[in-house]
Amino acid sequence: MNDDTRKTLAPLESNSPERLPEIFASIREDFDREAAAVRDAQQWKQLHDAWLGRKSGVIANITENWLKSAPRELKSAVGQSLNALRAHIESVAAQREKELREAAEQAALSRERADLSLPGAIRALGCRHPLRQTFEEIERIFLSIGFSVVEGPEIETPYYNFDALNIPETHPARDTMDTFYVSTPAGSPPRLLRTHTSPMQVRTMEKRKPPVRIIVPGRVYRRENPDASHSFAFHQIEGLAVDRDITFADFKGTIEYFAGQFFGPRTRVRLRPSYFPFTEPSVEFDASCSMCEGGGCRLCKQSGWIELFGAGMVNPAVYQFVDYDPKQYCGFAFGLGVDRLAMIKFGITDIQLFFQNDARFLRQFP
Ligand code: FA5
Predict the structure, then answer these.
(1) Residue nearest to atom 26 of ligand 1 (CA)
(2) Span 138-160, pLDDT tens digits
(3) Which of 129, 127, 135 lies closest to 262, judged by CA?
(4) Which portions of the chain are predicted below pLDDT 70?
(5) Which of 6, 267, 322, 330 could form a disulfide with 263 if both were Cys (CB 3.0 to 4.6 A apart)?
(6) pTM of the predicted model, to two decimals?
(7) Is 277 in the pocket of ligand 1 (CB under 6 A)?
């Protein structure tokens, strides 16, 4: 059926009623032929509009021009033929639309087929923070000589942070560790942010009998003005070894073994006498400055040396707080400044860089 025919359906009266089936069969053939010629969705839409369009489609046209004006005796027959024709067209339309949709999907799929030979998207990998690397390296060294790792609370009581370490309230050593106190409800015991990892010496000895060989990694806090080598929150690793017959030679051998493993041969180290209320004798362990290599600079305050940790033989006064017999047991303890060790190891000249999370800095430690 071409466009002209659609527009000019001959009045039904001019066709004899007996020819109705033949007329509708011929219209249906026209549709089938046109539908078979459709190749894509756009052509299909045109055909769909031409036949099923609400205003000027063939079905609408037959309804308007034939059905409505059909003589009474023909109305039912025209109606039935028209319904059969519409049902046929709609079922073909549904089938063709399904086929076209599937064909379009198939075409899209074959266009979008994954090319497995293409290189994948490369994701930027993060890296371990230099302080974490330093913690892991120190732990590895001490684990290899029989120490084990324990951890303790960052919020402490004055008893563990000071008193049980032989630093009573009036002791001047409390002033060297200017302390952050935590506000607590009225009537409850005072709490503070631990100023060093040494409270874990006492907590461990309270729970375990000798032999004890532990290290305690952790964060500590002091009211300090930040500069290139000082921070108000920094990191320490406490070490403690207590047994029968431990001597100063065992202590020196242990920390020299650690220094050799950690720094290698280039960095120079030295021990110098010091004072801590919880060790007797006490020493300070220094390494040559990573920035000036001993010549004197801003980082080492012109001394050529950077203080890395304090250490010494456990003061027998401490054993009394943990019920150890000082006549039977002795040992050594040390408190490594992890940030300072990392600075020397990686040649970092400002401790503040560890805490700024600048990706340009962190990227340098893959
Ligand atoms: C102590 O904290 C003792 N508890 C160490 C100790 C343990 C001695 C066991 C004897 C036996 P000191 O205050 O010196 O000691 O701190 C230890 C190390 O922490 C220092 O050598 C230094 O490397 C580091 N340190 C101290 N203050 C700071 C700071 N503000 N910023 C960064 N590192 C610091």
Answers:
(1) 337
(2) 999 999 999 999 999 999 999 99
(3) 135
(4) 1-17, 173, 176, 290
(5) 267
(6) 0.68
(7) no
